[in-house]
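Progress report, Aim 2. The chain analyzed during this reporting quarter is listed below.
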Amino acid sequence: MNKTLVRIVIGSKSDLEQCLPIQTQLQQFGIASDFFISSAHRNPEKTITLAKEAEQLGIQVIIACAGMAAHLPGIIAANTTLPVIGVPLSNSALNGEDALFSIVQMPTGVPVATVAINGIKNAAILAAEIIALNNEEVKQKLKQFREELAQN
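Predicted structure tokens for the chain:
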């Protein structure tokens, strides 16, 4: 499967190393992704474009990682009807609790699925589960992944 199905957006270069494992986890399921750095505050136009163009490019899920005020997942969700998974990052004085609350407290009508603080791998697994709803190959890889987890 070569078609890009997941878009990953992070808010800062400083989050890059922490967030790259998302792509590695997605590759384990045979899911191609693209990766962008775009701040909701410093470059809102780029962020909105990344959200708005995703569906027409064949993207099925967007993962947005952000720390502190963590507006990135919300601004993306406000500009697409695709599922958005928010990953709060612990790069603040409040160890990610500020980001967690910002992401989970989205208003009615603009939901963002939220994983744990620094829940990078779970975000990738959740994206794979969403894709597996209509993709038998990914579904089988998820089943195998779960079987391997049960053996450890």
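Helices lie at 16-19, 21-28, 44-54, 72-77, 97-104, 120-132, 136-151. The chain has one domain: 4-151. These observations will guide the mutagenesis work planned for the next reporting period.
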